[in-house]
Amino acid sequence: MARCTAARVVLLLLPCVLTARTRPSLPGYETASARDAGTGARKVLTTHGHECKFPFRQGGRIHHHCITIGSSRPWCSLTHNFDRDVQWGFCTTEVTRPNVFVHTSRRITDPCQGNPCQNGGICTLVPHLRTFECTCPESFTGKQCEQRKCYETLHLRYYDTGESWGRIHWRNVERCTCVAGETVCERVRYTVCRMNPCENEGTCRLITDTGEEVCNCRLGYRGPHCSFEAKTACYSSRGADYRGLVGTTETGARCLPWNSDLLLNELHVGTVVAAPLRGLGDHAYCRNPDQDRKPWCYTLSHGAISWEYCDVPACVKSEWQKSDQLTFYSRRKMPFIVTPTTKKPKPAKPKKKPVCGTRHKKRLSIPRARIMGGNTALPGTHPWMAAIYIRESEFCAGTLISSCWVVSAGHCFSRSPRKSTIRVVFGQQHFNVTGPNTKTFGVEDYIFPKKFSVFNPMLHDIVLVKLKREDGRCVRRTPFIRPICLPDKDMTFPDHYCCAISGWGHTHEKANGYSTLQEAGVRLVPHSTCTKPEVYGNHVTSDMICAGSSQCADACQGDSGGPLACAKGDVSFLYGIISWGEGCGRVGKPGVYTKVGNYIDWINSVVKPKRKFPRWDNHLQI
């Protein structure tokens, strides 16, 4: 039997949508690409005559052109969100991008030389088409970013050439249009609105000709519905009531609109009850609708949906407020006020939250009733993930189980690498990319179980990696770095139970390079099934677990050592370690994982000389 001889280190993320089972019925095949008469931008049509929608979301990633994931022929989504709508078509042979202005140039070797994009536009080369495209700043549009948009100060947004909108300006109800970058307005007839959608005591008027409702905001408020507090410069408490205008993160990234069609299964307008009450809507400003530590927003990072905390300072009480508060409490303690002392009953101690196995939750919508076929994970979704870089070219994953200890696959270390050549990175979202949420450690030691053999590393495929302390301590707990729980040695999950795998590995069997952190759901395969001769036979021992999915989800090259995490309630346990398998995602060939429960006594004997786990730093409120 052909066995996998290399490390399995990342997830197979084929969409499994280009099959007869999921293929939507399309009326016919298209014949050509078309040109948008309004802008001159070239559209991409499918072989059915349908227009491709760019950018579109697939597997949590954002694509700006036709792709070949899961198919040998280029295809595209017919909506901006393929993950949600699963509507697609094969692209015609002439593949260009709509609404991203492309120019053909055969005489110039490098058409971006000298940057033909105006007004700060960024030129991107499209080498296989010998073309380039301009990505324009927010205030400009056009083929080469030559057209200026109109900015409406009352609504705090840009309008494109030809767009119209209503407003109340100096008590006049007007209808405005963007003409060649200039705002042209005229007074119109109006009446009183039946219902008032305007917030913060704004007044509403209804434009008679168009039926559009427009708001007149009180001083200090802006926006189409008076929901923005223009002069708010900081947030109080955790910022749940913040309604300011900061739209950039701590790293300088721009926020996505909360109602963006690219957001699926994330916290956005379509999935949050009473979204306007939480400050969400048709805008891209920082908010805190889920009671996080501070305001945050969704962003695009390396072509995938991500999120970051925002560049908004916390409000600090002024000196007069502190003085006034001190005076108030001083008056309450004046000597002539007699207050009886009564012994209050001690409140019941709240249940301690587990310090392991909990994750940062940013997907608050109703979960889909299917196993994930592979998606880009959001930051903090798998905070126990460790990226292990060995020498210059080897890579594996690992799982944080305590402040100073990581569990990984033994075969990753079977060539006895020098400890000085190993680095372990936590909080990493993109392969080999560090950022404000990452922390890097050296390795003090790595320890194999006694039964491990370099001559058959897939047996007892487990290793404990001890981190080097920095300033007397190892990992500190953050929203993006937390340990997973270890199972009891008698803990079992039933057959076909859905567990999670995650990693940075290859997204398909013949892929090159690694990826953004991916996640997928797999179901536990009965041991009797996995040991059948046509599956793996006696190569699977009692120290191994099999898991796979009919949705083309599997671990692949680069995922070795990562976790098979099974959850009870909101707490995740390290049930298995990604070890080996035949190919990636092959039918009838599930992934094989080291059964962690069989090694709990050994792990505890190594990790806990005095206590079960080292003490965690809990100074950070999460």
Observed structural traits:
5% helix; 28% strand; mainly beta; 6-stranded antiparallel β-barrel; disordered C terminus
Please tell me about this protein's structure.
By secondary structure, the protein is mainly β. 5% of the residues lie in helices and 28% in strands. The chain is built from four helices and 36 strands. The protein has a six-stranded antiparallel beta barrel. Strands 24-25-26-29-28-27 form a six-stranded antiparallel barrel. Strands 6-8-7 form a three-stranded antiparallel beta sheet, with no helix packed on it. A hairpin with a 2-residue loop joins strand 21 (296-301) and strand 22 (304-309). The protein starts with 7 loop residues before the first strand and ends in a 15-residue tail after the last helix.
Task: Give a brief outline of the structure.
With 622 residues, the chain is mainly beta. The protein contains four helices and 36 strands.
